[in-house]
Amino acid sequence: MAPVSLAIHAPGADLAPTVDSIRYLRDCLNNDLIRQYVTFHVFFSNKHIPSKIPDPETFLLTPFNCTSKPPYNVDASSTYMKSKSLLYPVNVARNVARDSALTHFILPSDIELYPSPNLIPRFLNMIARNEKPLNSTKPRVFPISIFEVDAKVQVPSTKTELQAMLIKKTAIPFHKYVCPNCHNIPQGQQWMNAAETSQMDVFHVGKRRGKYVHWEPIFIGTHQDPYYDERLSWEGKKDKMTQGYILCVKDYDFMILNNAFLIHKPGIKHYAKNPKRDAIAGRQSSFVKNVIMPELKKLYGVRNGCAL
């Protein structure tokens, strides 16, 4: 229950069904939440400009025909993006969504991550109380613990429910079977063991170094935080690592929240070999090492213990 700024990559012929989907969501669902809370921000590369672009000022004035089936029920393999073998510019999307957000605090998250209920009012209540360690002057972000749940279970709505599922193994820490170190959160085990409390507080102040040097947290931050590098694609993996490096060099505090969590869309992920994606990831990895890393060192300097 908070404003949502949603960025959607819609190159070429993908624009028309995207626009129709937005209209369907705004006009045809039996509640006003999407109209009240969601702004949609559509982007595409200058190499893939759609042949016909609706006028943003007027296209919403014509009500959508709600008897047709939802335009977003498409086969992903039939999209323009797929037919042209385009990579997903995930960091362009993140920056577009973030720049379009009008609030002071922002949670740059992915659409398949569901925030725990009441996260926003509880977070703002914590900020208003401004108790220790919040009153420090260091730059900070607020990472949120992420979990996966079994495809057949109901998503937990409280930390207590989540803890019961962790015991039953119907919930696991995010990417446990894919890349455990990428989301290994400082004091993660203690967080899972600590009982739920009635209000939100900072559970632990961590750093992105030592055994957490490759941590890719998702966090609540502000417009002052470094941007995501738009040259990196989703297929190339580890697309948030360069931002993590900058946060480390700038000596950010990572204020981990006690009762807040994100649940990935149900279904536990296992590592599956994907030679095509592995090749793209290999190229991206060497680009980061040989091109981006020297730039970051010039721009931000180095700090002991910080690495990609």
TrEMBL record:
Keywords: Glycosyltransferase, Transferase
Superkingdom field: Eukaryota
A Pfam family: Glyco_transf_49
GO molecular function: glycosyltransferase activity
PANTHER family, per the entry: FI01434P-RELATED
Descriptive protein name: N-acetyllactosaminide beta-1,3-N-acetylglucosaminyltransferase
